[in-house]
Structures
1.
Amino acid sequence: QVQLEESGGGLVQAGGSLRLSCAASAVTFGSYAVGWHRQAPGKQCDLVADMTSDGTTNYADSVKGRFTISRDNAKNTVYLQMNGLSPEDTATYYCRASKLWNVYWGQGARVTVSA
């Protein structure tokens, strides 16, 4: 069982930046694919960015060039650096770790971007 805990959410003005962190309990964290998803009120949960265990990244078109996913396997942590935030980025952001058929989710971090 992998436990994930997000941190770093909050309120920021449009154009600002935030960095989300997700700390994992798994000791073999480096072998997991990781990702960030978000869900705005009344909308479905969408993929924001993910990274395979070998470091290959993938981003939603809406965040390309503004968001960066990274990981520190020694710290069992995955990050999402968010720059150039807009009100459309307001959502609850969820961290995900997956390996084979096992998928684990964090509890979510709320991000609110004011105009």
2.
Amino acid sequence: QVQLVESGGGLVQAGGSLRLSCLVFGNRFSINAMGWYRQAPGKQRELVAIFTSGSTTNYADSVKGRFTISRDNAKNTMYLQMNSLKPEDTAVYYCNATVVDGYRYLEVWGQGTRVTVSS
């Protein structure tokens, strides 16, 4: 069983930076892919950045060059460094993992952490 706990959200002015953390509890070796998603008010949840099953990274076009996804396996933690933040980055950010469970793939979500960027 994998559980994800996000932290690091908050209020920041446009142009500022935040670093989000996602702490993984449970068997991280069962994780096939892992990434960050966000959901702004009134909008659908969207992919921000992801480590694929091949450990490559992909980013949404809107955050390329500003956000960096990384992980520290020794700390069982994934990060999202967000620089040059814009008001349109305001959203609840969720950590996500695709977990292999036998012959199934399960989606695991954290509780979310709110990021508010003021203009």
3.
Amino acid sequence: QVQLMESGGGLVQAGGSLRLSCAASGNIFSTSTMGWYRQAPGRQRELVARITLRGYTAYHDSVKGRFTISRDNAKNTVYLQMNSLKPEDTAVYYCNKWPTTPNDSWGQGTQVTVTS
């Protein structure tokens, strides 16, 4: 069974930074492109960034130049460095493989709150 454990969220003022971590167990990490997703209240979950096994990255337009995704394959961990945070970045952040299917399980996520 795949387990995903996100951490590193918190409360930060606009312009601040946070670094999220996600530890993944099972085969998911070693065989998958990994992604960071977020879900704000009243909105659908959206992909924020993804990274392939070889380290190629892609970002949502709203976070380009501010967020950086990385992975440590030896530790089965994926990171999201978030700089220049904005109030609109407030959401629960999740990691998972990319793409996902409706049957995929998710972790608890980590709350990021950015105040103006």
4.
Amino acid sequence: QVQLVESGGGLVQTGGSLTLSCTASRRINGLVVMGWYRQAPGNQRELVALKPRVGDPIIAQTVKGRFTISRDNAKQSVDLQMNSLEPEDTAVYYCNAVDVGSVSYWGQGTQVTVSS
């Protein structure tokens, strides 16, 4: 099965920055949407940001102005640039992609921890 491979998670101080990266383990034709979700301890998984193949991204209000999503369609990769990180951003971040057949692909998650 095709899976997404994530990197870039880690520990950062409040106000710091991290960049998460995600690529497909195998070539997939026709990825319509790529994006990021996160799940904090005790919480449900929530949308962080989505980037369609063409057009403007969708950014969650909780991170708008601090996080930026970017996508390289040729590489089938998506990055999440996280600035001004807060302890509330601590979570496992999951990469997600959806192809033209509405098949959803997920990464295993990468931990982001923001210290107080």
